[in-house]
Amino acid sequence: MKELLEKINQSARKIVNDVCKIRSEERVLIITNRVLEELSISDKATAKTTILPQVEIIAQALYDECENAGAKVSMVTQPAKHSMDSADETVLAALKTEPDVCFSISHHMLGKDANGISHPYVDDEGNSYDHIFDYLLYGKKTMRSAWTPGITLDMFERTVAIDYHELQQRCATLCKLYKNVVQVEVKAPAGTDLVIPVEGRQPLADDGDFSKPGTGGNIPAGEVFISPVVGNGKDKGCSGRIVFDGSMSVNSGCVAINDPIIVDVTGGFITNISGGYEAQKLLETITEAEQEALAMGKDGRLSQEDSQLYYRNARNIGELGIGLNPAAKITGNMLEDEKVFKTCHIAIGENYDNDANALIHLDGVIKNPMIDFIYQDASRRRVLDNGVIQF
Question: What is the value of pTM for the model shown?
């Protein structure tokens, strides 16, 4: 146990010093949960199971390392939140103090901003945000952040201490390849065959450099992602079939996929979901988001127009991401799974370009994809071949 905690402290130190580069006198807010979980610990020839608050231990390690860096640190603990839950008022109030850095070290989710959904925050350029966190990070660009939905001690110890310079180069190369791309074609052995329009969209990199205001991403880091062009439900938007065969986010967390989930897409939106237990959980989560959006329109939490948009976008194809973290492996935990080499992931629901708001953002992993970029001049570039990077 002592050896594990030492490695956790080392990972926390790397985030504070190398990833976020926290400076003396900066104000740091840490948001976490206290959830007791079983953990198997091997100590030389013996192994034992113990009960630990894993995310809270990570949050405390970050707290200590921030203090060592000379920062002014506050930590707020709230109950664990799921996809449809709201963050506690104390958490939202703490965010409204506009910290320099925010770490969301959560068992599952940070939680929604109910007031922000009803009364969006608007930045100087007229962009609206339905969460104070997003407004400070992407709108005002006064905050930087790292968030870890579903983090475990094992994951934190294994996937954080990577070569970030190498990761940043890999992400930068892929982002450059996206220049002038109008369409992405994704195929995979399990049956995925999807066309994704991206003309005018810009890729984003979760590359582990969160040192400047307005930057942030997951820990573990390691992906490049892009929001598809929002469809019209007919002849514009993503089209084809997605077969998720890695893992899938649902309201209760993440499920490892034994029976592939088959999703048909027309005009940017899901038209059918089939499969077994995992497909049923996905459909239940989407349906819950749709019904909640309609309920919010009825009771005034959303306008009727926004209610219909949130309802529609529960079936939107909101992201294509490519995993680039060499230490990640598929474990049935989406935070890590979506960073794995030889995978891509496609999200259902809200996108990252702020033009498809939804109550959900559900990532699903596809193994060993073949991904081609189609450019404005009709040329083609393969970037993944059976999952293997071609750049």
Answer: 0.91
